[in-house]
Design a protein that fits this description.
The protein is built from four helices and no strands. With about 100 residues, the protein is mostly helical.
Length: about 100
């Protein structure tokens, strides 16, 4: 598997992860509300003209300032911890996305 293929799988898993945790809309709202310069430079997740940012552990931490959101820092911190566990599980499963990947612990 090439790094680009792996990035695409992880990006798909991230979006599915956000949906499974009822966080896709809050993520998008906060992501697009934050500084566009910061977003395009450090987190081009939704910028199709750029290569997908491959620091998968930073998908949540680099997206926007958690404390400035309606959900608050604790919400995003818990979600980030869960994302890291999901990412490790995805790696363990050889990057095969399955429904059990998003089951509650």
């Amino acid at each position: 598997m090439t790094p680009e293929e792996k990035d695409k799988i992880i990006l798909k898993a991230f979006v599915m992860f956000l949906k499974a945790n009822n966080a896709l809309i809050p993520f998008r709202v906060n992501y697009y509300r934050d500084s566009p310069g910061y977003r395009s430079r450090f987190f081009p997740l939704y910028n199709k003209s750029m290569h997908i940012y491959n620091d998968h552990l930073s998908y949540l931490t680099a997206a926007f300032t958690w404390a400035n959101t309606k959900e608050g820092g604790k919400f995003w911190s818990r979600l980030n911890n869960k994302w890291i566990r999901t990412l490790r599980l995805l790696e363990y499963k050889d990057y095969k996305i399955t429904p059990s990947l998003f089951d509650e612990e």
